[in-house]
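User: Predict structure, ligand N-hydroxy-L-asparagine.
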Amino acid sequence: MNSRRKFLQNTLFGSIAAGNAAFWAKTAEQFDHSAKDALPAVIATWGPNVKATAAAWQVLSTGGRALDAVEAGVRVPEADPADTSVGYGGLPDRDGNVTLDACIMDEFGNAGSVSFLQHIMHPISVARRVMEKTPHVMLVGEGALQFALNEGFKKENLLTDNARKAWEDWKVKSEYKPQINVERHDTIGMIALDKQQRIAGACTTSGLAFKMHGRVGDSPVIGAGMFADNEVGGAAATGLGELVLRTLGSFLVVEEMRRGAHPQKAVETAVKRIASKYPEQTNENQVGFIAMDKKGRHGAFGIHPGFNYVLYQRGENKVFEAASLKSR
Ligand code: SD4
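Assistant: Predicted complex:
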């Protein structure tokens, strides 16, 4: 049994069984009936990220800024050696290097991003510095590392013994075949809405396990892995980044919400776009989106069953199973 499934079975938090989209859409709307206490709220990809939403909630519940909440939140899995998809402990590329991607956006539409960054445990905080201290949006590779070191971040070895062992086992066959939900897709995308109705988002990952050296996914690309617009809401993606990059998925979700769609309908549209453009790749690969609008309404949807997410709202930190386009 994979760790996520085990986690879900063991979790004390309530979860809604995966249903069809129509069932879920109704359920998601049930969250909307008492809009007055919908703020603050935070949503994140993948159930094991309950500790991340709890860290974000600490900021939000004490009147803090959404931007600080998402940064504090996603730093939790970045520092967790047991999370093999994010930061320290992340599975390396096929040459044994841990290379990290992250991005962040604030309520003013400012954005910062790093990609192909090595040796820094908290890429999200480097992305925030890029946003706040440079005239740029994105720094990559060696330049991003130099910037981080100049900013006082510590150079560290991020390859844990477990991740090295997994890589050595993988090297025996050296086959790269992403599998739906089997490979740990625990990239964290997070959207927070604070008491002052400010929206911010963050996304951070070590990317696909055993990827080509130099491969960059959707997670650090503003509009692909994450997008937030304070007039509308925010969205984030997880899964096979190539499918999200080609469709600029998170931007699409936010634009659908801008046109009036409920966040649940908006994420369904983005998943369906991928499925209609890339039907063959959709059969074999997972993508999931989360979204939250300015009213604190949310949505989540995957191509396949197995995508779950965490919502911390009205004082409760809960894991939910997202509905999906395809059935088991
Ligand atoms: C990527 N979207 O690099 C990321 C992978 C991911 O959970 O979401 N993993 O393509």
